[in-house]
Amino acid sequence: MAQPVLTAAALEEISAAIARPVGSKAHCASEFLKKEGLPPGLVEEMDGLTDETPMRFWIIDNSDSMRKKDGQHLEVAEDGSISSTPCSRWAELADTLRWHGAVAEELQAWTQFRLLNAAMGCQQNITVGAKKGVGLGSLEKLIGSEPVGETPLVAALKGVTAEIAKVSDALVKASKVAVVIIASDGEPSDGDVRDALFELQKLPVAVRVRLCTNSADVLGFWNKVDKTSAGGLDILDDVHNEAKEVAKGNNWLTYSLVLHHVREFGCTKKVLDLLDERSLQPAEIREFIVLLFGSHLNATLPDPGADMMGFIKATTDLLAAEPPIWNLTQKKKTAWIDLKRGRRGSAGQGWSGPSFRFFFSFASGLASSAAGFFAFFRLLGLRSSGRSAPGARPRSRQSRAARSLRLPPALAPR
Questions:
Q1: What distance in Å separates the CA atoms of residue 21 and residue 36, rounded to the nearest whole number?
Q2: Helix-, strand-, coil-residue percentages of the chain, each rounded to 5
Q3: Phi, psi of 125 (to 5 degrees)
Q4: CA distances (Å), 406 to each of 62, 125, 251, 267, 399, in order?
Q5: How many CB atoms lie within 10 A of CB 310?
Q6: Contact present, 209 and 234 (Cβ < 8 Å)
Q7: What is the pLDDT of residues 81-102, one digit of tens each?
Q8: Which residue in 250, 328, 332, 236 sits closest to 292, CA to CA?
Q9: CA 116, CA 193: separation in Å to the nearest integer?
Q10: Which helix (H) or strand (E) holds 248?
């Protein structure tokens, strides 16, 4: 079991971070985050997140099973393209830990990386972000170590619980939380994790589980734990499988590597947790777009429930001004939001499934007024079957309303 790491000096550093007012953005890393490919809103969110979550713990599974060669090493090129090659689970996780170590360093976000098992050639607990220039070298040694042993996760959770308890009162008073990220490929070997999580979640914490395996049994285990946990868990798969899960209900979104990292970092916005759980509702999609592109949009982005066409036009303009990102599924650069997919539906079957519900909720808002009633039917074109009324003059594929809004043809009434 690792020795306690919150020394008197560390407690002073964390207490100072807890005392900072939310929104102070004492340590910003805007330029660094922009180079990493984050859009303006996520840069803004990350810059302010250290005020809301002043301490974070990574509990890192370095058991023998992490040697298995079913991981994916992601290589990010200068142009933002991403290639992948097979590797061990441990090597895949190493990529993630390097990114979070670099971000913790730039943001001066107090972050501790804790191995489950002591390993040769490195310390078991490494802190990054407490002081500039201290910790990254030690983290690299930790990453370079070899997995060994079992999965004593329960003991590790108890240790982290004891550390957070030392500053729990201060966190509660400041309305802030600690973040705990569990990176593991299996079940604990030392007891019932639910009991340990129950004690941890009595404290002001947000818990993430970053799975390092595609095993359905392991995913099923953690989903059961999630259902019985007091505060709930945000369970994240690797980025490729998480993108597939998100696409089931929200295929209009390009789920990128940087968005995945933001979720791992501990962004507490509920709309991010919902991405892989269900289709977002119109108000939630607006909230997500504000999160993606900046809080200033709260005052200007139309409410989709009241002005659907205005919302689509504003979103189209936002996308035109934002560079595309690497789409891991399509293996090319695409826009953050694919409005064509929103029109086609999740399975390419027209207005069906979640996308139909998304559109219909918008259209219902228009139809609630007399003017909206006619706008609604103009938008539908009264031609869901694709046939014109007898004697009607053929229409162009893009309606006048759509042309005036400069919408892509796939969004235009047909």
A1: 27
A2: 50, 15, 40
A3: -125, 125
A4: 53, 55, 22, 34, 10
A5: 14
A6: yes
A7: 999 999 999 999 999 999 999 9
A8: 250
A9: 14
A10: helix 239-249
Helices 370-380 + 353-367 axis angle, to 10: 150
Give the residue among 59, 63, 238 at the shortest CA–CA distance from 146: 63
Q: What is the pTM of this model?
A: 0.82
Split at pLDDT 50, 70, 90, the class of 400 is: very low
Contact (CB, 8 A) for 184 and 90: no
> By C-alpha distance, which of 275, 59, 1, 2 is closest to 185?
59
DSSP H/E element including 193: helix 193-200
Nearest residue to 39 via CA among 289, 300, 332: 289
pLDDT, tens digit (0-9, with 9 covering 90-100), for 93-148: 999 999 999 999 999 899 999 999 999 999 999 999 888 888 999 999 999 999 99
- Sheet containing strand 55-60, edge to edge, reads 125-128, 111-115, 55-60, 178-184, 205-211, 234-236
Q: pLDDT higher for 75 or 350?
A: 75
Q: Which residues, at least 6 apart from 168, have a Cβ–Cβ distance to it below 8 Å?
A: 203, 204
Q: How far is CA 29 from CA 179, 267, 375, in A?
A: 20, 16, 45
pLDDT band for 27, please (50, 70, 90 cuts).
low
pLDDT in tens, 237-267: 999 999 999 999 999 999 999 999 999 999 9
Helix (H, G, I), strand (E, B) or coil at 361: helix
Strand 234-236 and strand 125-128: pairing? Answer: unpaired
> Is the separation of the CB atoms in 238 and 72 below 8 Å?
yes
Beta strands at 82-87 and 71-76: parallel, antiparallel or unpaired: antiparallel
